[in-house]
């Protein structure tokens, strides 16, 4: 009986320890779960080099790992990658994810960066229940994506270079190079003449500069003459023009005021003057006749009658 009791006691102790261990493991697992945060990343490029458990770095600091990599049947152009990072990792608005290679081993990792100080955290759940970190192409991803286009361009460039460097064009290029070589030799032979021409050009430029300076001085002198002589004369001319205009305006006003008198003078006084002129003419003629009589017969001719003829009696 004692042996059986000991076995029961030992079994109970072992069972209690197992339960305690299980509770500790569950508690530890819950603590770990509470100390991490999960995010989804949707890559449109190839995720070659990534695998479950690959590291996740934030600005070069390891902060977590990849938990899951899944294809998306509804959107086959995307690959969903779920990551788990430390609770204190600042996943804020502006944070982006890129794929970066690790050396030349072919293994890749996810790099997180771009968080802005003071920005709110990324907390809005995505289509799979976890917040989504946006992506941006990495250097390797951009290179891989642009590799086909780059190869096509290199191939096209190679074909065009082949066409350009055919036999006919090679002969033309050889002729051009020969002409260039000849031209270089001619220029070398005419080096002294070119140097002399450069010296002469320098002298001409200096003379042109002096002439420009003299023209400037002449312009300043002309401006001074304009300011000292022409401007006062123009001012006097303006004053004379203003005075003449004022005189004309005064004369016009005077003529306007004198128009009634001029009209009366022309209609009344002028006929009377004409009549007076006729009377004076008649008086002048009468005086002329009297003067003639005085000359011929003296005062008697004027005062007396005409001389009677001598009387002769009839026989």
Helix-strand blueprint:
Elements: H1 2-34, E1 36-43, E2 55-58, E3 61-71, E4 79-86, E5 96-101, E6 108-113, H2 139-164, H3 167-189, H4 191-303
Parallel strand pairs: 2-6
Antiparallel strand pairs: 1-4, 2-3, 3-4, 5-6
Organism: Rhizorhabdus histidinilytica
Keywords: Membrane, Transmembrane, Transmembrane helix
Transmembrane segments: 7-29
Please explain how this structure is put together.
InterPro entries: Mce/MlaD. Keywords: Membrane, Transmembrane, Transmembrane helix. Pfam families: MlaD. This is Phospholipid/cholesterol/gamma-HCH transport system substrate-binding protein. There is one protein chain. This protein has a domain of 110 residues. 62% of the residues lie in helices and 14% in strands. It is built from 4 helices and 6 strands. The protein has a 6-stranded mixed β-sheet with strand order 1-4-3-2-6-5. A hairpin with a 7-residue loop joins strand 3 and strand 4. The chain is elongated and about 210 Å long.
């Amino acid at each position: 009986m004692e042996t059986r009791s000991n076995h029961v006691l030992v079994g109970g102790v072992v069972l209690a320890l197992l339960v305690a261990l299980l509770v500790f493991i569950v508690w530890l697992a819950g603590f770990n779960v509470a100390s991490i945060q999960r995010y989804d990343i949707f890559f449109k490029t190839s995720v070659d080099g990534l695998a479950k458990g690959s590291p996740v770095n934030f600005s070069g600091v390891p902060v977590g790992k990849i938990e899951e990599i899944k294809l998306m049947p509804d959107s086959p152009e995307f690959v969903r990658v779920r990551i788990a990072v430390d609770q204190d990792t600042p996943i804020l608005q502006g944070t982006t994810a890129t794929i970066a290679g690790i050396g030349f081993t072919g293994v890749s990792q996810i790099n997180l960066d771009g968080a802005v100080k003071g920005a709110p955290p990324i907390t809005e759940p995505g289509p799979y229940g976890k917040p989504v970190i946006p992506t941006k192409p990495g250097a390797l991803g951009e290179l891989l994506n642009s590799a086909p286009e780059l190869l096509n361009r290199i191939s096209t460039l190679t074909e065009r270079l082949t066409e350009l460097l055919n036999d006919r064009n090679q002969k033309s290029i050889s002729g051009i190079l020969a002409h260039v070589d000849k031209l270089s030799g001619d220029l070398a032979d005419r080096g002294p003449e070119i140097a002399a021409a450069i010296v002469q050009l320098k002298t001409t430029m200096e003379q042109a500069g002096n002439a420009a300076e003299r023209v400037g001085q002449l312009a300043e002198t002309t401006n001074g003459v304009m300011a000292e002589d022409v401007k006062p004369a123009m001012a006097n001319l303006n004053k004379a023009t203003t005075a003449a205009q004022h005189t004309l305006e005064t004369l016009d006003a005077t003529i306007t005021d004198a128009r009634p008198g001029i009209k009366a003078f022309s209609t009344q006084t002028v006929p009377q003057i004409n009549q007076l002129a006729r009377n004076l003419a008649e008086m002048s003629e009468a005086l002329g006749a009297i003067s003639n009589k005085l000359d011929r017969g003296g005062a008697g001719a004027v005062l007396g009658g005409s001389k009677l003829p001598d009387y002769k009696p009839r026989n």
